[in-house]
Amino acid sequence: MTTDLDKTDRAILAALQNDGRMSNARLAETVGLSETPCARRLKRLESEGYIDQYRAMLSRSALGFGVVAFVYVRFAVHDRTVATRFEREVQAIPRILSCHNVSGSADYILQVVARDLDDYGTFMRDEMRSLPGVTSVESALSLREVKANGGLPLS
Predict the structure, then answer these.
(1) To pair with 83 at 20 to 30 A between CA atoms, which of 30, 67, 103, 104?
(2) pLDDT in tens, 30-72
(3) What's the Cα-to-Cα distance from 130 to each of 19, 82, 83, 109, rounded to whole Å?
(4) Which of 143, 125, 145, 144 lies closest to 134 in space, CA to CA?
């Protein structure tokens, strides 16, 4: 699918990854097009699924989430029904920012936020350990974020 993108399409996508609120006029100027062809290309990129959505990136620290943890979840029994229930329940928990089914020693890796370590401990005890199929959890706490929300490579 990405082979259909030319240099200008990639420039549009890169500009929007940096500033999703960019006006069409500014976007057109940034990529060297007039406004109408730029708007047409943008509409095509959206309709072809290259742009999933537009959203605001919120500040975790300003909202009081001082802890970021990566949680390695393991199942003892690998049952499709249990995994489906686990995934459905995970999607309903707002403090779980992402969940990936992975290969290796863990079955899933989750990125979780909490206000502080006490809040994180309570979440682990009351919510994580009671999710369907979970037999083991291991946490890695982020000490410092080096890079966040990087855009996709478009070269």
Answers:
(1) 67
(2) 999 999 999 999 999 999 999 999 999 899 999 999 999 999 9
(3) 39, 12, 13, 16
(4) 125
**Rounded CA separation 6/25 (Å):** 20
Contact 141, 72 (CB under 8 A): no
Residue 151 placed within a domain: no
- pTM of the full structure: 0.85
Residue 102 is encoded by which pair of tokens? 């992975």
The tokens 């047409």 sit on which residue? 40
Which are the contacts of 7, defined by CB distance < 8 A and separation ≥ 6?
A: none
d(CA 96, CA 112): 4
Domain that holds residue 24: 2-47
The count of structural domains within the chain is 2
The residues pairing with 70 across neighbouring beta strands, listed in sequence order, are: 111, 140
Which CATH number is 42's domain given? Answer: 1.10.10.10
Residue 57 falls inside a structural domain: no
